[in-house]
Design brief:
Largest sheet: 6 strands, parallel
CATH topology of the largest domain: Rossmann fold
Keywords: Calcium, Metal-binding, Periplasm, Signal, Sugar transport, Transport
Strand content: 15-25%
Helix content: 40-55%
Pfam families: Peripla_BP_4
Main location: other
Shape: elongated
Subcellular location: Cell envelope
Strand order of the largest sheet: 2-1-3-4-5-11
Protein name: D-galactose/methyl-galactoside binding periplasmic protein MglB
Structural class: alpha/beta
CATH superfamily of the largest domain: Response regulator
Radius of gyration: 26 Å
Order of helices and strands: HEHEHEHEHEHEHEHEHEHEHEEH
CATH architecture of the largest domain: 3-Layer(aba) Sandwich
Length: 347
């Protein structure tokens, strides 16, 4: 027994000495490559359909070029503020911020100014005065009114091409409208300009319902369920500020017997996300407007990377800035005729 114990003790000592002689494993280099800058990124919420594609473009573009610290702000501005503080403490060289609330831009700018950091806002546009208040601040997004105008053209052209959609024969479009987040620049502009454009084309309109679906498919479906129960076939067109809500509308229509036996309701959205493109192919949506997630993400990454490296924000890029220090990625109206343009944006 003593011999066995002695052997076990000796074996234990050998293993211990061997372990002590091993070199500790080193943590992988930041971003996969030594010397790449840290860039802090927040997305207002990761599960937003459109923003998931913008995030993917940022991640793809940043591979081997930056260490990205990505944050889901969960649609909570207080959470986003804390995330910005955390990223600054981690030594980021620039910030790329998709605001939860555009009105919070001044407080984010003050945090960035205090740390002498450049900040690129994207997708939710701050007030022009906020952007002008700090030399090292820019914006990447779109011209909000453009999407409403293009959506209005799709509605007007499709209505004129399909006179049987005028169910009561009064020459007017009786429409319902699913609005995005109240106060959001895109929601306000799309809601205004889509109707203005339809009227400009010489078509009269009558609003049956307008409520916020908060960009959400489930909320969109719930609203359309209620509207169909209230108005039935008096509704002649469903207009949605984004594709997520449009998809919710399609889901409601299908559950209520539409798209079968000649029963049809036109639906339009904005964003041209892949799910919406499939609905257009299947004849369940009339059209959408390409909100170019790929190029918005790439432009955001390009600017944030340049300024993190101490360069001019536009150096080596194809982008230009307008008089509001903004890169404007153009929209494209999408119907079955030019679906390939939108499909290409997701390759």
């Amino acid at each position: 027994m003593k011999k066995i114990l002695a052997l076990l003790l000796a074996l234990t000592m050998v293993l211990t000495l061997a372990a002590c002689g091993q070199k500790p494993a080193e943590a992988p280099a930041a971003g996969g490559d030594a010397g790449v800058p840290k860039i802090g990124v927040t997305i207002y919420k990761f599960d937003d359909n459109f923003m998931s594609f913008v995030r993917r473009a940022i991640e793809t573009g940043g591979k081997d070029k930056a260490e990205l610290i990505l944050n889901d702000s969960q649609n909570n501005q207080a959470t986003q503020n804390e995330q910005v503080d955390m990223m600054i403490s981690k030594g980021v060289k620039s910030l790329a911020i998709n605001l939860v609330d555009p009105q919070a831009a001044p407080s984010i700018i003050e945090k960035a100014r205090g740390a002498n950091l450049p900040v690129v806002f994207f997708n939710k546009e701050p007030d022009a005065a906020a952007l002008a208040s700090y030399d090292h601040t820019w914006y990447v997004g779109t011209t909000s009114s453009e999407s409403g105008v293009m959506q209005g053209k799709i509605v007007a052209d499709s209505w004129k091409a399909n006179p049987d959609w005028d169910k009561n024969g009064d020459g007017k479009i009786q429409y319902v409208l699913l609005k995005g987040e109240p106060g959001h620049p895109d929601a306000e502009a799309r809601t205004k300009y889509v109707i203005e454009e339809i009227k400009k084309s010489g078509i009269e309109v009558e609003e049956l319902e307008l409520q916020t679906g908060m960009w959400d498919s489930v909320k969109g479906k719930e609203l359309v369920d209620a509207w169909l129960a209230k108005h039935g076939d008096k509704i002649e067109y469903i207009i949605a500020n984004n594709d997520a809500m449009a998809l919710g509308a399609v889901s409601s229509l299908k559950a209520n017997g539409y798209f079968e036996n000649g029963k049809f309701m036109p639906v339009v959205g904005v964003d041209a996300i892949p799910d919406a493109l499939e609905q257009i192919k299947g004849g369940l949506m009339v059209g959408t407007v390409l909100n170019d997630a790929k190029n918005q993400g790439q432009a955001t990454l390009d600017l944030a990377l340049n300024v993190a490296n101490g360069k001019d924000p536009l150096e080596g890029t194809k982008w230009t800035l307008d008089d509001k220090k903004a890169v404007r990625v153009p929209y494209v109206g999408i119907t079955l005729d030019n679906l390939a343009i939108a499909e290409e944006a997701y390759k």
